[in-house]
Amino acid sequence: MCNLYQPTGPETIRLKFGVAAPVGAYGPTVAPLKPGPIVLAGQALVAQWGFIPENSASATPMLPNGTRMSTNNARAERLASATTYRKAWALGQRCLIPADHFDEPNWSSGKNEWWRFWRADGEPWALAGIWTEWVHPLTAERVPSYAMVTQNCDGHPLLGLMHKPDPTLAAHAQDKRAVVPIEPQHWEQWLQGSTEQAHSLIQVPDASLFKAGPAQPARQERLF
């Protein structure tokens, strides 16, 4: 799973993804419920990172007990069945999430050390996402939102080191979650293919795709 990443700037999105730069401001880092850019077929827009179910009473989805729903990550195994995501998945509402890098907690030393993940080739990530447009029940305001698709990466030589291990579970049953990178030659398939074609792209990436190391705490404050 991912809870913090650096989005790609508008001009780079225009150049690398071949769409007009998204309209709207977003910050140098994106955390849950904050705005970030997404790429659809033929366009880019700024949306909330945190998928808003269509029956939600507000843009901050809540559980019946009053706690906030965590909808920034969507488990690949449940895209077709989870009440929150299944309609958007069936309708092909998939997106790419442009990111310069993302952060994950590395527990290989026995304690948390935040690590940062770039592409080894220096290009921005295009991470698999699912999106929707929520309509406010009182004002009719339309709010786009998205979730990042995650997959099981148990046993991966790099991604399997992330997240705190559960000592009560075997190594092959930890369910270490990670993002789903989509390569440029598969962008069209992810965005416009059938659900079967899109699901076939959810594959654990080779470790050679990554450049990774400890994250630097300082972040430049700016708005895109």
3D architecture notes:
With 224 residues, the chain is mainly β. It has one domain: SOS response associated peptidase-like (hypothetical protein yedk fold), CATH 3.90.1680. The protein is 11% helix and 31% strand. The protein contains four helices and ten strands, in the order βαβββαβββββααβ. The protein has helices spanning 10-17, 86-90, 187-192, 195-199; strands at 5-7, 35-40, 43-49, 73-75, 94-106, 113-119, 125-135, 142-152, 177-179, 210-214. Strands 1, 2, 3, 4, 5, 6, 7, 8, 9 and 10 form a ten-stranded mixed β-sheet that branches. A hairpin with a 2-residue loop joins strand 2 (35-40) and strand 3 (43-49). The longest helix has 8 residues, at 10-17. The relative contact order is 0.20. Mean pLDDT is 92; it is low at 218-222.
Attribute tags:
224 residues; protease; disordered C terminus; SRAP; mainly beta; lyase; hypothetical protein yedk fold; 31% strand
